[in-house]
Amino acid sequence: MAPEREGRERAHGGRERVPVGATAATARSRSRVHLDQPRPPRRRFLPTWDPEAFGKLSERIARFIGTGRFLVWMTVVIVLWVVWNVSVPVGLRFDEYPFIFLTLVLSLQASYAAPLILLAQNRQADRDRVNLEQDRQQNERSIADTEYLTREVAALRIGLGEVATRDWIRSELQDLVKELDEHHGNGHANGHRDAVFPAEPAPGRDMDDR
User: Fold this and answer.
1) What distance lies between CA 97 and its chain's CA centroid?
2) pTM
3) Beta strands 10-11; 15-16: pairing state
4) How confident is the model at residue 197 (pLDDT cuts 50, 70, 90)?
5) CA distances from 113 to 106, 117, 127, 138 (A)
6) Which of 12, 65, 128, 142 is 20 to 30 A off residue 31, Cα-Cα?
């Protein structure tokens, strides 16, 4: 009962005294509730749209404006507009000479066409920038691969320079055969000379020392 009485006491302005532990627990529970629950969406007074869809639509319109079909249709509409407002009775004309309404329509069409064309050009410029960046990265990778292959080819050439080829082995064998023939010929000549002129023992050495 004592904790309940302390929690319900009123002091200093009529406020209830709440234990410190209960206040911390309440704050933690409130913060947990705010973290667990998603925030409600904010009200937006302006209309929302998908920038990607709007950009694609602007590109389609810009491509259509830049074609001969648009010029043909626009010429046909203007000619029919002028002929109708000139040839039909006065009561059926909706834009008499000097065709002020037609001028306003064409001005409105031009005022919308220019931003759409600029938007399409900006999107194309962004795509070109991305393509240029990809081409630059591809060129860097190609240069790195070329440098690596160049180093490998140089290492192979150095390694092949140290490998014994068929021509080198053949030349070495020919030199060895020549040396053997010369040595064999010198041996026969020395043997014949020793037989005719026996070699004298070296001075100061006794034959029995061997």
Assistant:
1) 59
2) 0.45
3) antiparallel
4) very low
5) 10, 6, 21, 37
6) 12
